[in-house]
Amino acid sequence: MRDPLKVDEAYYHNFDNSYSKFADAVMDVGDSPCVKFECPRYKLCAEEKVECKAFRFWVNNGEMETYSKKVKGMVSIEKDLERILRICE
């Protein structure tokens, strides 16, 4: 289901290695919420070039949980899969 991320080899072979940490970080982001929670829209969102609230939260915060005032604690972003779809810009 998941396509592997690929980083240009040049990031690892530059003169001062300043890009190697960046390349490593790109590779170490882990599974997106789409993959982790097996979202049924995984392929459809890619085709339509849209993103859901859960995906946006994960991209911006790198977390799979968020604080909920209603629950007064941490909750999984899984509830936000398929919600509030927006075109990727």
- Which spans have pLDDT < 50 for at least 5 consecutive residues? none
How many beta-strand segments?
4
**From the helix content, strand content and strand pairing, which structural class follows?**
alpha+beta
Q: Quote the distance from N terminus to C terminus.
A: 24 Å
Reported for the largest beta sheet, the result is: 2 strands, antiparallel
Task: Please report the number of helical segments.
Answer: 4
As for the number of domains, it is: 1
Order of helices and strands: HHHEHEEE
Strand content: 5-15%
Q: Write down the Rg.
A: 16 Å
Describe this structure in words.
Helix content is about 30%, strand content about 15%. With about 90 residues, it is α+β, with helices and mostly antiparallel strands. It has one domain. The strands form 2 sheets. A two-stranded antiparallel ribbon has the order 1-4. Strands 2-3 form a two-stranded antiparallel ribbon. A hairpin with a 4-residue loop joins strand 2 and strand 3 (about 75). The radius of gyration is 16 Å and the shape is globular.
Short structural description:
The protein has 89 residues and is α+β, with helices and mostly antiparallel strands. 31% of the residues lie in helices and 13% in strands.
What keyword list fits this structure?
two-stranded antiparallel sheet; globular; alpha+beta; 89 residues
Summarize the SSE layout with pairings:
Layout: H1 20-27, H2 33-36, H3 42-48, E1 50-51, H4 53-61, E2 65-68, E3 73-76, E4 86-87
Antiparallel strand pairs: 1-4, 2-3
